[in-house]
Fold:
Amino acid sequence: MIKVSHLRKEFELSRQQQKELNTSDKIALAVNDVSFECQAGKVYSLLGPNGAGKTTTLRMLSTILTPTSGGIEIAGIDAVKYPQEARKKIGFLTGSTGLYARLTPIEIIDYFAALYQVPNKERDERKKYLFHLLNMEDFLQKRIGKLSTGMKQKVSICRTMIHNPEVVIFDEPTSGLDVITAENIIKLIRDCKDQGKTVIFSSHIMSEVDLLCDDLAIIHKGALKYQGSMTDFRQHMEATNLTEEFIRIVQR
Amino acid sequence: MIFTIFKKELIDTLRDKRTMRTMLLIPLLVFPITLTVFVNVSSSFEKKASEEQLKIGVWGDLGAKYWSQLKEMPDGIGKKKLKTFEDSSALKRAIEQGDIQLGLIIPKNESELARTKQPIPLTWLFDATSIGRQERAESYMNYLSNKAEAIRLQELGVDMEKIHPLIPVYQNCASDKKMIGQLAGGFLPYIFIAFGFIGCMYPAIDLFTGEKERGTIETLLTTPISRWQILVGKMLVIVSSGMLAATCALIGLFVSIEFLDIVQNKEILDIVHGILTPLFIVSMFSLLLPLVVFFAGVMIPIAVYAKSFKEAQSIITPLNFVMVLLAMIGFFPGIELNAMTAAIPVVNIVLATKELISGTLSIGYYAISLGIMLILATLSVVVSYKQFGKESRILN
Structure:
């Protein structure tokens, strides 16, 4: 479970950034008073246009960024006070596969398993399960730099799930991927839900959200514009389709 | 956990061809190749110059005894072929056109000057742009001069030993080890600094800026390890790389001296062997280690700050020139390790290494140098940690 309360994130702007943004403000407010809850066994979607504050919010949830104020609870752990403890419970995946090109998939998985302090026996079982599930056996010994985008994405998924996290955070996971590769991610999100994990993912594609999520929040300019269940969203929408309703809410 | 990061980063670094080139291949091969080429080329030029048969044009009093002495001169001084000329301008022209290589002008009044026991000017013409010409003229002249001196003294009835009442004897009291330290000691710290710096450079950029560029730092930061552990793990790889590059350069230099016949003087070789004791090697690495940690500590904040590989490289490369300039202090005679120079970072290591080779290193100054470098290395680690802890720095 994830509990977020009154989350706020400010960034200090450098002189160059002030110039680029044409502002004299020394502080940029990226996320302002955001509160929500994600339940275990459900998929929560953070929807918003580019620059809305989705990535900043998810980076705070995954403890890469420290909030300026507000609270985050990850699987019962105060993630602001005890980020290292919280990280043990989190799996984090982005669309841009951050992998080491000169290592092989097996080396990367072993490395991350060691960083998450997964016991060897459990690691080997998880590896066997994930390699079979993702059909990775054929390219385990090849270097990442020689793999296709789809193969790399499978390695990323395996890396994210090796420690069997309770909470899985996906930051625009299908961004820039082809349909077949994106399908792997969609399948993974469904599997996580079936396993009772807490899943949060960000997207700007309404159709993807419609396909997967149970609850959603729409974020724009750092603030929440809507939050509720997907069923409620569908029932109470004023526009003719989901995408138009999303645009209507953002422009409101 | 630090070891896990160190191991992974080391494997990753060792598989990077660019880093391997700068860390292992170039340092290992640079001295054997450059010294072999340099020694072979220069000795072949010297050999060619000494064995070359020169055409000597002679103008002036051909009846003088020098003409016959030149003819009788042994080939060991330099092979030659003589040719007479009718005027001095033709002689000069022939040298300019390359028809002859040396010209000798014997004064027309040579017999008169010899008879009245006056000095006889012998003028040698040569083209200084051709290697070895002047040296060959000097050899011929020494031969003629010695002969003339002996003849004149005999004519005067003077014993040669009697005209030299004082025999100067200059005795060098410096040990051979000290001499080598003074003459070549500047070279070793230069290697330390040049290769230690380059050895650190690529891994530092790759492990910090590269991780930012590739987006791998984000996934690494979501794992339950602290930033200082990540920093130390990566820093250990950078330091190892710098140490390895400097060590490889030293091995390359040692191999060149030992096996490639570059140093032909047996006494010098014996001194080099005498210097290379376990204590010397340990002392040398104790100076190298804080220096390389300092380099890594300077590079990491830059690599963390830079947004791209290019940006990091453009900031670090000029620093390399500064370090190499400081390393060159070791080549200047007269600059010694004292209380003041021991407090100047990098310069202290250069001078301490030089004195270590000479065997004149004072323990007190060694301790100051080491202390200063350790303080700086610690400071640079702290600065690196602070930079690495900044959100704005580690995420592009």
User: Anything to note?
Assistant: Residues 38-63+82-251 of chain A form a domain with the Rossmann fold fold (CATH 3.40.50.300). The longest strand of chain A covers residues 27-38. The beta strands of chain A are 2-12, 27-38, 43-47, 69-74, 77-78, 90-94, 167-171, 198-203, 215-220, 223-229. Chain A has one domain: 38-63+82-251.
